[in-house]
Design a protein that fits this description.
The structure holds two protein chains of two kinds.
Chain A: H1 21-35, H2 42-55, H3 59-71, H4 76-96, H5 98-108
Chain B: H1 18-25, H2 35-41, E1 54-58, H3 84-95, E2 101-105, H4 115-124, E3 128-133, H5 146-152, E4 156-160, H6 166-173, H7 177-190, E5 202-206, H8 217-232, E6 238-241, H9 248-256, H10 260-269, H11 273-277, E7 284-287, E8 293-294, H12 297-301, H13 319-322, H14 334-337
Parallel strand pairs in B: 1-2, 1-7, 2-3, 3-4, 4-5, 5-6
Antiparallel strand pairs in B: 7-8
The chains are: A mainly alpha, B alpha/beta.
C-alpha cells in the first residue's frame, strides 16, 4: 500500500458495509439521526463534528466536515474558532495531567 | 482564489468556446452518470416545459465587473449587446402573450444603452420587471439616476452579494466590490427598496464562493439579514441561494483548482428528484442578445438553443408553441437539481 490515507477512499466509506451489512445499516441510521436538526441545529452539529475531526485527527472527517460546514453556511472565522476549541481541549487535557505528575512527584519526594 | 484576470475570451482561453466546455462536461467519466439517465430514473425524461411564466432577456455580455464564477464570461471587454431592433421583437412577443414577468439579465444589463427604454416599454405592457443587478453599476458616473429610475418604474432588483464578509465577496467579484455593493444597497434602501412598507422589492443572490453547495436558503437568509443590518444598516426582502453551475469561468476555477471531479460528484450525489421536477427552465424562455431562444441562461452560454435549433428566434416566438417544448438538457443541469435545487429565484424545494 503506497499511502495510509487516500482521499479516493472517502466516497468508498460504504464499502465497510460489505461484510457486516446489518452493523453498517445500524451505524448509518444512527449517524443520520445524530446529525439531524434537533435541540442543536444541523449547522452547530457540523461545527462540533469539524472540531472533533481535528481532535481525533481524521483527515477524511476534516475534508468531509470542512465541506459540510461551508454547505451549512458556516464561514472560515467560525470554523477556525471551532478548531481552536478542539485544540484548547487537547492542550488543556495534556496540561491537566500535570496534576497527575505533581501527585506522583509528591509521593516520590521527601 | 487568485486575482481576477479578465474574461476567458480576452485571455483567448480554450474554455471561451462553448464547444470546449461541453467537451469537458461530456468527457466519459464512469462516475458521472448522464443527466438524462438520472431524469429517467425520476420519471422526468424527457423534460418538458409546463408553460411560460418568466420571459428572460439577456441584453448582453458587457459588464463593469469580471467575477470569478461568471457563467456568462461577462466583462468590460465583452461588446456583444442586444440592439433596440431585437428588443422590439421581444416587446412584440410579449405583447402577443400574457407572460407576467420579464427578467432582464446580462452582463450588467443596465450598461446596454437601451436598457431604460426597454424597461419603460415593458412597463407599458403592464408586466412585472426584474433587473439582475451587480450593485456596483448603480454607482458608475455614466449611470447617474439609475437607482431612481428603477424605483420610479417599480422594477424588482435582484442583486448579487455572495457573502456578508468583504474578503469572501471580493475574492469572487473583485477587490473593493463589497464596499461598493454596500454603498449601492444603502442607496437602494434610501429610495425605499427592501423596506417592508414599500412595494420596492430588493432580493439578494448568494452564490457559494467555491466548490461547495449553497447552505439551506432560509438559514443563510437569516444570517445575511442579521449581519447586514448589524454591520451596515442594510435591509432587504429575500435571499436566493443559487448553485454555481460547472460552466464558463466557474468551470475554469474548478479545473485549475483540481476540484472539477469532486464538485461534479457532489452535485450528482445531491441530485434531488423534487428539485429536478421544479427546475426553472420548465416555466421560462430565455432570449439571447442576438434574439436566439434558449431554455435558460446557462444553455444560452453553452450555445444550446431550444430544440437544438439555432434558427429558433424571438421573431418566431409564440407562448403556445414554446410553452410545452422539450427542454434541452446536459451534464451542467446537475447544478440546478442538487440539494434544495437552484433557479434564478433560488432554491426550488
Amino acid at each position: 500500500m503506497a499511502d495510509y490515507y487516500n482521499n479516493q477512499d472517502l466516497p468508498r466509506f460504504g464499502d465497510m458495509g460489505k461484510n457486516a451489512p446489518e452493523l453498517w445499516e445500524k451505524f448509518q441510521s444512527w449517524y443520520g439521526a445524530v446529525f439531524a436538526e434537533g435541540a442543536l441545529t444541523a449547522r452547530e452539529k457540523s461545527l462540533i463534528a469539524l472540531a472533533v475531526s481535528h481532535a481525533v485527527q481524521c483527515p477524511y472527517c476534516i475534508d468531509a466536515y470542512t465541506q459540510d460546514c461551508l454547505e451549512k453556511g458556516s464561514n472560515l472565522d467560525q470554523m477556525s474558532e471551532a478548531v481552536h476549541v478542539a485544540s484548547a481541549i487537547r492542550g488543556g487535557a495534556s496540561l491537566v495531567h500535570g496534576l497527575q505528575m505533581r501527585h506522583a512527584a509528591e509521593k516520590l519526594s521527601m | 482564489m487568485a486575482a481576477l484576470i479578465g474574461s476567458l475570451q480576452s485571455r483567448e482561453h480554450e474554455l471561451a468556446s462553448a464547444g470546449e466546455q461541453l467537451r469537458v462536461l461530456n468527457a466519459p467519466v464512469s462516475r458521472h452518470p448522464p443527466f438524462d439517465q438520472k431524469l429517467a430514473e425520476s420519471g422526468l425524461h424527457p423534460l418538458t416545459a409546463t408553460g411560460i411564466e418568466v420571459f428572460q432577456i439577456n441584453v448582453g455580455k458587457l459588464c463593469n465587473q469580471t467575477c470569478r464564477h461568471c457563467h456568462v464570461d461577462a466583462g468590460p471587454d465583452r461588446k456583444e449587446i442586444m440592439t433596440r431592433e431585437t428588443m422590439e421583437l421581444c416587446l412584440e412577443a410579449l405583447a402577443g402573450s400574457d407572460i407576467p414577468t420579464v427578467d432582464i439579465t446580462g452582463g450588467a444589463p443596465e450598461l446596454n444603452p437601451d436598457f431604460r427604454w426597454l424597461v419603460t416599454e415593458i412597463k407599458k405592457l403592464g408586466r412585472h420587471v426584474l433587473d439582475r443587478c451587480n450593485l456596483s453599476v448603480l454607482l458608475l458616473p455614466s449611470q447617474r439616476g439609475l437607482a431612481e429610475f428603477l424605483a420610479e418604474n417599480r422594477v424588482e432588483v435582484v442583486a448579487s452579494l455572495p457573502y456578508f464578509i468583504a474578503a469572501r465577496t471580493d475574492a469572487q467579484r473583485g477587490a473593493g466590490v463589497f464596499d461598493k455593493s454596500i454603498e449601492a444597497l444603502r442607496l437602494l434602501n434610501s429610495l425605499g427598496y427592501g423596506k417592508p412598507e414599500t412595494d420596492l422589492a430588493l432580493n439578494l443572490v448568494y452564490n457559494p464562493t467555491g466548490a461547495f453547495l449553497p447552505p439551506p436558503q432560509e438559514a443563510v437568509e437569516a444570517d445575511f439579514k442579521r449581519e447586514l443590518l448589524d454591520r451596515h444598516g442594510v435591509v432587504f426582502n429575500s435571499l436566493y441561494a443559487i448553485t454555481n453551475l460547472p460552466i464558463s469561468r466557474f468551470l475554469e476555477f474548478l479545473l485549475e483548482s483540481n476540484n472539477y471531479d469532486h464538485y461534479m460528484e457532489r452535485l450528482i450525489q445531491a441530485y434531488n428528484p423534487r428539485a429536478a421536477a421544479g427546475v426553472m427552465c420548465r416555466n421560462m424562455i430565455s432570449v439571447g442578445w442576438e434574439g436566439t431562444l434558449y431554455d435558460c441562461d446557462f444553455n444560452q452560454m453553452l450555445d444550446l438553443p431550444v430544440w437544438g435549433d439555432a434558427s429558433a428566434h424571438i421573431r418566431d416566438f409564440s407562448a403556445g408553441t414554446f410553452g410545452s417544448r422539450r427542454i434541452v438538457t446536459g451534464q451542467h443541469c446537475y447544478g440546478c437539481t442538487a440539494g434544495a435545487g437552484s433557479s434564478c429565484g433560488g432554491a426550488t424545494v
